[in-house]
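> Could you send the Lipoprotein NlpI prediction when you get a chance?

Sure thing. Input:
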Amino acid sequence: MKIRFGALALVALMLSACAQTGPSQSAALTNLFVVTPQAPDMRYQLEIAKLNEIVARDMELPEESQAELLYRRGSLYDALGLVTLARIDFNHALEYNPRLADAYNYLGIHYTQLEEFNYAYEMFDGVLELEPDHPYATLNRGVNAYYDNRIDLAIDDFTTFYEAQPDDPYRVIWLFLAEVEESHEAARLALAQRRVEHGNTDWGWSLVDLMLGAIDEQTFLKGFAVRDLKPDETLAERMCETYFYLGKLKQMEGDFQAASVYFRLAMSTNVFMFLEYRYANLELERSKQAIEAASAK
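Output:
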């Protein structure tokens, strides 16, 4: 009972902090620093050159091998932000091997970015039919449903994804982002409870604290944003996440001007493979629409 009381007390403290924070005046925007965009990885470019030679020279490769080569090249194009070339390769790979689940997964992500939501559902459903335990298809289908405003479906997929690894702060955050569309107070309470039950010292949980209001925007940017940067993690990657989730926070506060700034900054990092980079443009467009709607009143 003492443990349970302590947890409930911490939940109450977090919710109190969030309630006291209130709408921001975007003062933290004056303290922003813009990171150098992530440079294209030379290793990816060299591997693409090698794959181009193989594809051009060995036209008699078995179809399955052709599919793997095209899929690999497509994934490298995607990592470099060359999404049109990536889509061409993924589609060609599927012509050689229609059971290549990861190619469907990539195409689903691209369709979500293009707001072609029905096509994206088909891709993700195809992935899960081929590989029911695919590590990311459920998340990606949930993201598609979230941007398609089918919040009930998004919550179902995000819940499944969260329950598979409840100590992953990003799974917690995306479930919260969907739940808050139905009830802000209930979502915030659930987020605080998950923080207490599963939180640890990983940096991502600082983002959860930010959403709860336990850390304010300026404090987060001054110290927490670059805390515990790992040797294999770049500053651009860290700030891509930071800017994106700060943008989501400002949206929830109704400050769409500040949100737009943060989403532009997330896009400026050029961390093409990150989910936060992929969907920053969608979020930017929705923030612009909210600004225009407010101006029209």
